[in-house]
Each structure stands twice: as structure tokens, then as C-alpha cells.
Amino acid sequence: MEDDQLLTTRVPRTLEAKTKLFGLELTDVLIIFANLATTNLVFGATSFRVPIVWGSTLILGALLFFFKRGKPDGYLAHFGEFLAAPEYRSAGASDLKFVKRKDVNLE
Predict the structure, then answer these.
(1) What is the DSSP letter of 89?
(2) Where are the alpha helices (DSSP H) in 15-102?
(3) How far is residue 61 CA from its own chain's centroid?
(4) In degrees rounded to 5, what are phi and psi of residue 42?
(5) How much is the CA Rg of the chain, to the nearest whole Å?
(6) pLDDT of residue 25
(7) Per-10-residue mean pLDDT for the chain, 107 residues long?
(8) pTM beyond cutoff 0.85
């Protein structure tokens, strides 16, 4: 019975670390690349290609980097949900999405 030792395995120290590229979340990098692709599609054949395509991409990247500094993960998604939500919410208002089922009798 000398084999009764606790089995252990090595694990990384930061299990909940978020993946970041250049200090930005992956969704932010996706937004930057979407901007780059869209502006390149629209302005790629014009003489304004360099200032509009690369300038807007660099400005957007810098804005996201400095605006999100010190904010929690998923801040932009939650901020967008906050802006889209109604300003006034009534606790006593009827639920417009509620559908009463006919096959269930609660009495």
C-alpha cells in the first residue's frame, strides 16, 4: 500500500487568460480586419487607397487600443447592448413576448 500517493498533473498557471493580439481581443482584431477589407474593396482602385484604407485602419486600431485600456473583456459588446436597450424599463409592464400555452393548466 505504498502506492497510495495523490496523482497530480501539471497545468498552466493562467487557465482563464484571454487570447490577445497586439493588446486587442480577437473580436477587435476581426473588426479591424473587416474595416481593412471593406475600405480596400471600396477605395482600393482609387488614388486615395493608402490614406483611406491604411489611415482608417490605423486610426480604428489606435482608438480601440486606447479606448479599451483598463476595461473588462467584452466591453464593446456589452456597451453596444447598453446603447441598444431601452432607457426606461417598467417592472410592472406586461411581457409582450409571453405566449400562454393552451396545453398547460396551472390551476
Answers:
(1) -
(2) 26-43, 49, 55-67, 75-84
(3) 15
(4) -80, -45
(5) 25
(6) 86
(7) 75 75 87 94 89 93 90 87 82 77 70
(8) no
Q: How far is CA 2 from CA 6, 10, 85, 90, in A?
A: 11, 22, 63, 66
CB 68 within 8 A of CB 76: yes
At residue 96, the pLDDT reads 78
CB atoms within 10 A of CB 28: 21
How far apart are alpha carbons 6 and 24 in whole angstroms? Answer: 40
pLDDT of residue 48: 85
Of 90, 70, 68, 89, the C-alpha closest to 79 is 68
CB burial of 58-90 (b: ≥16 within 10 Å; e: otherwise) equals eebbeebeeebeeeeeeebeeeeeeeeeeeeee
pLDDT in the model for residue 92 = 79
